[in-house]
Amino acid sequence: MLKRKSTPVKNTSNNNSNSKSGSAPSITYITKSTEITADMFCEDDVRIAGTVDGKIESKKKVMLTESGKVNGSIHSPDADISGSVSGDVKAFESLVLRASAIVDGKIFTKKLTIENGAQVKGSFQVGPNVSIPANGSQIVRKTGAGDKKKEETDT
């Protein structure tokens, strides 16, 4: 009889070797048919194809698809907007406004890319030394080793 070596089975689906924990990167996805009325705080990337009535804050990237609508502010290190935003956009590092983007509000970012066709009704503060105002949230975040810190900022 033939003997087979037993080999452990590895789960290779969505593995990301660059991730610190070895797990796959997470994306919060708001589908086209979803409507949310709430402020959102996300640790990971956010992709919005539906409608959000409220502030969106992410520690990573916010992506707004062509069908996506945000009635409130966006606050993240990076943002890529193809849909419509009625509120301020505060992207610490970079902001991309795609051709289909419509923004009615103030824009604050270090680096801005605007495709031909994007519409903006508001003001821009762009550059490496731009001062990005606080977002007005009161969010409890873990600061390390189980400690919690309440961040309070002005609007």
TrEMBL record:
Q: Where is this region: Disordered?
A: 1-26, 135-155
Descriptive protein name = Polymer-forming cytoskeletal protein
UniProt lists compositionally biased (Basic and acidic residues) regions at 144-155
Against InterPro entries, the record matches this protein to: BacA/B
Organism, by scientific name, is: Gracilimonas sediminicola
List where Low complexity composition bias occurs. 8-26
Assigned protein family: Belongs to the bactofilin family.
